[in-house]
Amino acid sequence: MKNTGSTIIVALLLLLSSRNFVDHASAAGKDYVNQADLAAICRVVAISKSSKPVNSASTLTEEDVHEIDEINLTIAESNWKSRFATNEDQKKEPQKACTTADGKEDCLKHWSRWEQTSIRLAKPLAAKKMLQIQQEKLDSAAGRAARIAVAALAAEAHAIKADFEQNIKPRLKPGDDDPYLMIKKAIFGAKATADETANCKVTMTSNRASDCKLPAAVQALCFAAVCICAQDGTQSKELYGTAASSAESVGTWTSGAVQQKWKHVLTACNKLPAQLFSATSLLAAAAGLRTRFKQYNGGANSEVYMGTIATASHNCAQSNGHGCIPITDAIPHGSEATKTLNWLDTLEAAAAKQVTIEAVTTEAAAAKKRIHMLTKQAKAALVALKWAEPAPEYTTPSENKTTSTNKGDDSLKQSEKECNTKGKDKEEECDKFKAQGCVYKEDGKDGKKCTLSKEGKKEAAEKAKKETGNDGNTDCSSHHDQKSSEAVNKQGQTTTCG
Fold it and tell me: Which residues lie in Polar residues bias regions (predicted)?
């Protein structure tokens, strides 16, 4: 079990606080022989008074991977996006390769996830939240790199979720009683509900000796408390103290009188404030009850019991000033126990269940956090691509050589690119550069709606002729020394290079 040292420390602190409760419940009296037992029982009651804990182990759901899936699809290639429907009424059939694949079920599951993501992204609110990337950037080298990175992040997020679903969450078995209900049943009886706070739901007869031994005494902790402390026609001492062992309205030990006696114990227990409901507190409470087990050494008549027992007899109803429960048959002693302490077993089972719940809840929170961090990384990749400057086109050395001798083409491309960039796909922006030959075309491609007009292309071509020497004159810019310049001049060109 994790954090065993911490659990032991907390258990000791809780036991010490129980001691303080005993000391302050009432002034010490010679008849108050079972007050330590009262403290251990009241500790359990105090835990049951706390609010039912909200266990969040099931909060890791499909929605936790929705955002990273949406980023993954936003950045995907166009031909992949187009395969999926954008509304529920127009779902598309999965690709044939998916329906005939060896892993058909997994393939169809992934297909469905992509399609649901596509449908979510098509909704106005979702589309508004998601960054829109120009197709030119998506098709660029940077776009391809971002696509690979985001796909890897999404795959890791789904692996985390799958591991939780397959290996962690199943530790919580559906249909089991929850620990909060279990502690109520331990205190108030098997018929108790999670809302029970007062009623001792057990069967009581008119025979204290029979009721206060196994198996009757283990019906519920409330009944065990009554056996150890209550007054009746024979036992008239305040074994638990003035409040818990009050003689007021208790009468004799008769059938159906359990609530009259239990209410006094509950009054004393209610002096303790509600205690935190946790695995640690439940384990400490169970340990506190076990510390109240005592041994009476009487040779063949030795007995393990709770409360106080008369030395002359093990009958817990025949001696004034004594109240007890013999539990020897529930303790292994050379052979298996023949009876059980139901309320203690239930309490310890609740503690074990709560340990599992808290561990799974912690792991669910950790998995959720990791997925959140992966989503942030994917979002950062999308933002970086959105605002990245267009990367310069890569050209091979041979392309560079061609470009250097085709300056006219370069000039035309440069003019076209300036219109694309400065116009920003907006008519009002494009109009600002009409003087440079730019014109806006609504039906143009994204990123190229502001383009070079026919007149602009003509002017660029004229400029190109001058730059390349195709206007009949020599392009002197390619001659950088005296020898090459003079060689050109001897060819009878119009322009003289020097």
Answer: 395-406, 485-498
Asked if residue 1 has pLDDT above 50, the reply is no
Pair 100, 410: CB distance under 8 Å: no
DSSP H or E run through 48 = helix 35-48
Structure confidence by residue, pLDDT tens digits, 468-485? 555 555 555 555 555 555
* Angle (nearest 5°) at CA 134 between 67 and 152: 40
Q: What kind and span of H or E run contains 294?
A: strand 294-296
CA distance linking residue 69 with residue 74, whole number of Å: 9
Beta-carbon contacts of residue 355 (< 8 Å; ≥ 6 apart): 1, 279, 283
Q: Where are the beta strands (DSSP E) in 41-95?
A: none
| One-letter amino acid of 487 | A
How far CA 93 is from CA of 110, 115, 118, in Å, comes to 13, 10, 14
Tokens linked to 301: 């008549």
Give the whole-angstrom CA distance, residue 444 versus residue 450.
8
Q: What is the pLDDT of residue 397?
A: 56
Q: Print burial letters for 364-386: b (CB count within 10 Å at least 16), e (below 16).
A: beebbeebeebbebbbebbeebe
* Cα–Cα distance, 156 to 153 (Å, whole number): 5
CA distance 115 to 137: 24
With beta carbons less than 8 A apart as the criterion, state whether 259 and 200 touch: yes
pLDDT, mean of residues 218-228: 95
- CA-wise closest residue to 203 among 223, 233, 182, 226: 223
Torsion angle in degrees (nearest 10) through CA of 281, 343, 360, 167: 150
Q: How far apart are CA 136 and CA 447, in angstroms?
A: 7
